[in-house]
Amino acid sequence: MSAVSQQQEVPVGPDEALAVVNAQQQTYLKRHEIKPAPLLTAWGLAWLIGYVALALYREPDYGLPRAPYLFFCGCLTVALLFTVAYIVPKARGIRGRSSREGTYYGLAWALGMPWAWWIMSVAGGGGMLVAAAVSAAAGAKRGA
């Protein structure tokens, strides 16, 4: 059917127009809404099960055999694959600013996970060293 031959009903009044808009919003949300519960469940299980494996198999000298570490990485990989499989179909068809912002958010999250140790090291440890230096300088000014 061509667009010209299609019969479309035009809403008669503002109430009908609002009903059409609400119906379109609901259809959009069903198709594109990314609910946090499935993602949080996947990642929560991956962390819970993965870290339990690491905790149970640590050695007395805090060494870690390769198998639990690989299991932990496998748990994270499964959660990542689930996340991609869940989000990609929901994001299909979204263009413009929303698409770019979603891409940036996803990349920041993903990069923030492989770089977390560096962030904790530099921001956490470095921040505490800066605070120590400021504290020491303030103490020296007071004559303490």
Beta strand %: under 5%
Helix count from the secondary structure assignment: 5
* Alpha carbon gap, first and last residue: 86 Å
Unreliable runs, pLDDT <50, ≥5 residues? Answer: none
- How many extended strands? 0
Radius of gyration: 26 Å
Task: Give a written overview of the molecule.
The protein is mainly α and 144 residues long. The chain has helices at residues 14-32, 36-56, 66-91, 97-112, 116-142. It has a domain at 33-92. The chain is 76% helix and 0% strand. It is flat.
Features:
single chain, 144 residues, mainly alpha, 5 helices
What's the helix and strand layout?
Elements lengths: L13 H19 L3 H21 L9 H26 L5 H16 L3 H27 L2
Helix pairs in contact: 2-3
Question: How would you summarize what this structure contains?
Answer:
Helix content is 76%, strand content 0%.
